[in-house]
Design a protein that fits this description.
The protein is an alpha+beta fold. Helix content is 50%, strand content 19%. The chain has helices at residues 2-7, 18-33, 43-46, and strands spanning 11-15, 38-42.
Length: 52
């Protein structure tokens, strides 16, 4: 699992309401502890985002 995380280029977390707020905490943890760039998006807006 550590090798998979080391090869990860970006993590995208999605959610609405409380899950979105939990995603903000996850974003912080991934970036600070694992040093992997992370983003949080509202699930309802995810389909409008460009891929890549």
């Amino acid at each position: 699992m550590d090798r998979d995380l080391a090869r990860t280029r970006r993590i995208l977390l999605t959610g609405c309401g409380t899950a979105w707020h939990a995603g903000l905490i996850g974003e912080y943890l991934f970036e600070e502890l694992a040093r992997v760039p992370a983003e949080v998006e509202y699930a309802s807006e995810l389909r409008d985002q460009p891929v890549g």
